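## retry 2 of 3
previous attempt timed out at serialization; input unchanged, resubmitting
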Amino acid sequence: MSTISAGTTTTAALVETGDTTGNLVLQVNGTTPSLTLNAAGAHGVGASPSYGTTGQVLTSAGSAASPTWATPATGAMTLISTLTASTSANLSWTGLSGYDKYMLIISNYTPSTLNATIQIKFGYGASPTYFTGGYNYTLLYTGSNSGSSNGVTPNTAGSISTSSIPLSYGTSSAETNPIYEYTDGVYYITGANTTSGTLPRFTIIGTSYFADTNNGGNFYSSLSGIRNNAAYTLTALQITASSGNIATATASLYGISS
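## retry succeeded, writing output
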């Protein structure tokens, strides 16, 4: 390999040695390799060149040592992916692992059919398999169906062993165009890896804003729901419309480390 060496005497302060390997080595203190550029352009550091692995970064070891390759530290919250619906049957995240908690943010959900709410299902296994029953939830909503400040209507809706969990309230008013409905919401999912103890379960809590702009109504809902998971680990989440397709939606899922 070709070398450029910083010598240790005035008569050999800089020595260049050439060959045809295509590699270039910068040496210090006479013959100690410090930086190696191989024929592919990769950067190796240290006396025995280390090139690291994909995604690693150089980390300083101070002024008296060579830097090293290291995997960068991640924050407490990591974006897994953002999915966008356009007349879609569902939005699904599969292959989930490594987190016991997740945060789901949904923006501008609109249904393709009248009064369809947005729903969520939990999945397990590699395929995955989605639970299609056994969900329990309570949805508390307040709102104004007429748009009047005096039209606040508190109510609760509870269900046992349903096929999915609704993430927001949906008006029952007749509408001429479902695009006038939209939902924004933030939801937290816990117990993703809890497979032991008393009644292990996947839980979801969250809040949402539902706008029925065609009829002048605005609703704010608070959700709490569970699905007893026995010995299952959460590997997938799927959101769908209660009927028809998801006309539009942007949904981001984050993994939370703690």
